Amino acid sequence: MCKFKNNGEHNRIDKCIKPLIKFLNNQGIYTYSSCCGHNKYPLTIIGKDYSGNFIELLSGIKITRTRKFYKKDKRGYYYIPEIINKNVKIKTR
To answer: What are the tens digits of pLDDT across the range 37-63?
Structure first.
């Protein structure tokens, strides 16, 4: 897990999942957006299915937006509402 900083800066890819994203991209699975969840939300990776629809790759949940996949909570953490709204169990420390 990456250390979360609420300073207005964000990396293109969270450091702790860079190897996973690189592996997926090298396998021809292009990723559009991702977040490790910072131990507050589940790990999420946005890709496309065979029909060209955006989906969250780990859950298979379809994302109807074509950009701005993530929302920011009051503490500055990013999450995908469709994932949280599906009652996904979130592991916390």
So the answer is: 999 999 999 999 999 999 999 999 999
CA-to-CA dists, residue 88 to 16, 24, 51, 52, angstroms: 21, 23, 25, 24
Question: Contact, 78 vs 35, CB < 8 A?
Answer: yes
The CA–CA distances, whole Å, from 47 to 4, 70, 79 equal 24, 13, 15
Overall pTM > 0.90: no
- C-alpha triplet 38, 30, 22: angle, nearest 5°: 60
**Domain boundaries along the sequence of the chain:** 15-85
Q: How far is CA 64 from the centre of its chain?
A: 15
User: Nearest CA to 47 among 61, 36, 39, 38?
Assistant: 61
